[in-house]
Amino acid sequence: MGRVDGLKICGDTAHIVEVKSRYAPPKPYDKLTPYPMRIYTNDLIQVLAYAYLVKTNYPHVKTIVITVKYRDHEETFTYTPIFDRYLGIVVELYRKMIIDRLLIEPFYHSPKKCRRCVYRDICRKLELIDENLEWRSLEQNIQRIPGYR
Predict the structure, then answer these.
(1) What are 40-92's pLDDT values in tens digits?
(2) Number of domains composing the chain
(3) Do residue 93 and residue 140 come from a single domain?
(4) Which of 10, 64, 132, 135 is the most exposed place for a label (fewest CB within 10 A)?
(5) What CATH number does the domain containing 27 carry?
(6) Helix (H) or strand (E) holding 13
(7) 62 in the same domain as 4
(8) What H or E segment, with its residue span, contains residue 67?
(9) Same-domain status, 51 and 18
(10) Are 73 and 27 contained in the same domain?
(11) CB-based burial label for 43 (10 Å; 0-12, 13-18, 19+)
(12) Are 65 and 78 in contact (CB under 8 A)?
């Protein structure tokens, strides 16, 4: 589980800071962000989840500024409604994976790590399923957001 590295609330503005020990992607990493950003998808999802929690727990906050600091690059952006839709699709895909007992095949097979994994009982290959979101890729589902890039 992650913990926010920095959170400061000043009036109606919240500042979230996430510090990473690795290097940033050398160029914009994926096509999923509403504008080019040098940030890994998993890091983006993490800070968007933090922003959602801030939005939920501090209703007076109107602006959320997010900074992801890598060893060699810093990416700062403002949380906007497009990120709500982005995060909503990601959460819905994860929810469907859990409900349908589907998970992506593990990247490693380590009895020691698997023994401690909370998903060990439902871990199996991802199968094609679903009539609503369709198990396309995350990128294809994100690009279906109206008004997206």
Answers:
(1) 888 998 999 999 999 999 999 999 999 999 999 999 999 998 888 888 888 88
(2) 2
(3) yes
(4) 132
(5) 3.30.300
(6) strand 13-19
(7) yes
(8) strand 63-69
(9) yes
(10) yes
(11) buried
(12) yes
- CA–centroid distance for 12 within its chain: 24
Same domain, 61 and 85: no
Same structural domain for residues 9 and 69?
Answer: yes
What is the 3-state composition of the chain as percent helix, strand, coil, each rounded to the nearest 5? 30, 15, 50
Q: Answer whether residue 107 shows pLDDT above 80.
A: no
Spatial CA neighbour of 45 closest among 7, 93, 6, 11 = 93
Among 114-118, 130-134, 140-144, where is mean pLDDT lowest? 130-134
Domain span at 132: 81-149
Q: Which residue type does 45 have? A: I
Prediction pTM value: 0.67
- Cα distance between residue 42 and residue 47, in whole Å: 9
Q: Are 68 and 138 members of one domain?
A: no
